[in-house]
Amino acid sequence: MKTDNLILLAAVASAVFLWLNRNAIRAALASGQTIANGATAGQPGFGWQYFTGGTAISPEGDYYFGGSKVYDGVTVGTAYKNGG
């Protein structure tokens, strides 16, 4: 296989793994403690949720761990977006 094909296969496998385990990811985040976010409208960080252990959720529902996106909040329907 070409390197490009292997990279694509790894990316697709990672995306499928994260998508299939989205409920487990949510449960793990829910078990962590929330860090208060005092940002108000117009300030950086407004609408973000922060958790102990280096996890954050953007207003769009994207999950970040250690500064890297690990789960894209864009899914079919709104039930999976940002805790809704």
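(ticket continues) Second input and output from the same batch:
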Amino acid sequence: MDFNKIIHNNSIPASNNIYSPVINPLVGLKRNGQTHQDIARILDRIHFESEFRKKDLLQQAIPGWTFTASIYTNGPLSYVAEDCTRWENRQTFFDDGILSRAQKRSISYRAGSWMNSWTGEQGPNLLSLIAHTLGTTLQNAICWIAETLGIDIGALNVPQFEMPRNFDFTANPQVICMFPPLAHWLLGYPSHQYCFVTEFGNQSFNLSEWKMEGETVRLFASVCHAPRSGGFDWLFVRPPVEHILFNKHRLKCEHHLPVFIYDDILLAAQHATHPNFVATWSGEKSYTADIDWSLLSGREVTYVLSNENSDSYLMCDTLRDVFNGMQTELTFEKECEGFHV
């Protein structure tokens, strides 16, 4: 891999790659025709895939790494591969500031963080570490990683990264007293979240939403279980498609009410508690046909199209075929026509 063929000659080397609006790669890497959601999902895939290939990527960026279970080292560089706590010698001081003796202390490290002990520079993930080791910008490092991993950084209509290898989906995180989802590694905290629940009304996973330059970016946040470590964590990955059914508890319990399938999750959420019908969401074009629609079998079901979603008419035939297969008639109407508005 010839890194010099990928980077730009006028690149400014990265120093401390903590994300800020100035160096947010969403801005610099977006190609013609791409939406912010496209590039966000591509960067998420690069983020996850680079973790799976971190040893190879680090060796290609700068050879000489020593690998242990939790922390990788290369001269002054250290990278935390897994959350860990270690007993280490730390210098102590008297109350008046005079140097005292070193003592053993318990130090906790967060997976993904790195540090250069010679310069004091540090960062939050593998992408920023590779930018640091290559002495270039975060954008150029991401381009190098994408080419190394064979990921098309200019792809359109990008599906969200699915449940990663060696992780299991946790459909009902309440059973393990799960903490709320954290900020996205690149986008920060979402402006809005749509909660998907189990058939019993318990929180299952979220669809998180951000607004960027007039565009909407939506990513699922799912609770994942790592069997190897036994730990649970929120990851911004798409849950198994069969679980993507919005307002599931009402669909299960209120069989006497008609169902309206909206092509926009925002509209479905706005009507989620309507007393005269049950609102749900069609999902995205790439997986609409694979959602488990069995709770709607034999019921009065209407697909509501809006003018905002260019995929609405493409999903009409897909949904018609799905419901025909369940011997259920599906009717169609525009969002502005029905009594539900």
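Agent notes: Residues 5 and 156 are 24 Å apart (CA to CA). Helices lie at 25-29, 36-52, 54-61, 126-134, 138-149, 248-253, 265-270, 312-325. Closing as not reproducible unless the customer responds.
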